[in-house]
User: What shape does this take?
Amino acid sequence: MTLEQLFYLAQIVASVGVIASLGFIAVQIRANTAALQRSEHNSTMAQWTVIRMAIAQNRDIAELMTAGLHGELPLDAADQLRLEQVLAENAWAAYHIWDRTQRGIFPRGTFELTGGALLRGLLGTARGGSLVAQRETNGLHPGRRRNARQGHCSVSQSRAD
Assistant: This one.
């Protein structure tokens, strides 16, 4: 075997090694992406678990949520604030599901089946709807949407100023 043939053989072996390395890297990136997506899912579920456990373990909060949202319970300023905070936490957790669904981290339809359905139920109650209307009146317009690609928020102007 000549020196030139050895050189060509070494180039072929090196090329095969580079291709094998790229294949290994692709497998590792895929596995890492799956692990990151699982971590995002676990983080979102941890947020929801805190809310669910607060309601499940504290009868006062559960009563505030059920009777308070349906207008069956008169609310003083402190209870109104508590109810608003629980709703805000639900909305924030639902937003995270929406955002991660928009970014492709969660499968399509995840938001509609989970956070969106729960939020729609909460905001469809007597007090839930009035809280949204109150926020809209105070300038916190629900037309706010996040542009995930550009990384910033914009507010749609649906009313004349």
